[in-house]
Specification:
With about 280 residues, this protein is mainly alpha-helical. It is about 70% helix and about 0% strand. It folds into 2 domains: about 140 residues, UbiA prenyltransferase (Tetracycline Repressor, domain 2, Orthogonal Bundle); about 130 residues. The chain is globular and about 55 Å long.
Length: about 280
């Protein structure tokens, strides 16, 4: 997510004819990427500390280091504080303009872990905002403007993924898994299915509008060629969640499904080619 602004600034803020301009921006994007690795790691540690007593009843989560007592919650909290501090220090020292946003992300995720994840709809909105912050900070780090359409697409896409995660958790609950989330009983299978479809269609619609309306994209509208890949990728993701029981860990869908990986890589390559040749 942090590198998306760098991708979409191809042949605008950097070019292959001046590869040094790319490496300067890539270095800044990498710095903020590393900062977010530490920030998100601290959030996951904090989350697992709070859930340690519930995770022991979950068939998979009980194997996590904190739930299985391999790592004590005091050590985990210590590293959570350490990692968040490292993230902030990286931004203060190397990319000062991003400090307020990385702090906002950490505060939002802390409030989410303590309170917001137990409130229906607010929980998935919080996750969506976290992804939008990633894109925003990625743009600020390399000092490039990003179309509002890209933020809208990211927000809707994140909502789709978050709701898919809730759906997978709900199915696991129906199959006898223990309850690990307060807001889950308030949802229903039908509501989750329908809202997931709404955000699936909304994301595709917003991305389609982005490809033809964004002022900084090629004027020949050839970016619309990337829309079928987005439709296929999102539909593939939904099938893996609905029919194969994936979704509780979205990162595993991307890393384990070969077809989806090929789709994502093809989309990245096609976007880069179109922007490089026609912008």
């Amino acid at each position: 997510m942090v590198f998306l602004p760098l991708l979409f600034s191809a042949n605008e803020s950097w070019t292959f004819n001046n590869i040094q301009s790319f490496f300067e921006l890539f270095l800044n994007a990498t710095v903020i990427f590393i900062a977010f690795v530490f920030a998100s790691s601290s959030v996951y540690l904090f989350n697992d500390v709070l859930d340690r007593d519930k995770d022991v009843f979950h068939p998979e989560k009980k194997l996590r280091p904190i739930a299985s007592r391999v790592v004590s919650f005091k050590v985990a909290l210590l590293f959570a504080i350490l990692f968040s501090s490292v993230a902030i220090i990286i931004c203060v020292v190397l990319l000062y303009d991003t400090v307020i946003y990385i702090c906002a992300y950490l505060v939002l995720m802390a409030i989410y872990s303590l309170l917001l994840r137990g409130i229906i709809i607010v929980d998935v909105v919080s996750i969506s905002v976290g992804f939008v912050i990633r894109v925003l900070v990625g743009a600020i780090a390399i000092n490039v403007p990003v179309s509002i359409w890209l933020y809208i697409c990211m927000a809707l896409g994140a909502m789709f993924m978050a709701l898919s995660k809730r759906y997978a958790e709900f199915i696991a609950l129906e199959e006898g898994s223990s309850l690990t989330r307060k807001s889950l009983p308030v949802y229903s299978k039908l509501v989750l299915q329908r809202t997931t479809y709404v955000f699936l269609i909304g994301t595709i619609f917003a991305y389609s509008l982005y490809t033809v309306n964004a002022g900084n994209l090629p004027s020949n509208k050839l970016m619309v060629l990337t829309v079928p890949l987005v439709i296929f990728g999102m539909r593939r993701y939904q099938i893996l969640v609905n029919q194969r029981g994936f979704g509780e860990r979205p990162e595993e869908i991307i890393t384990k499904d070969f077809i989806l990986r090929i789709c994502v890589l093809t989309w990245l390559l096609l976007v880069l080619i179109l922007l490089t040749i026609f912008r």
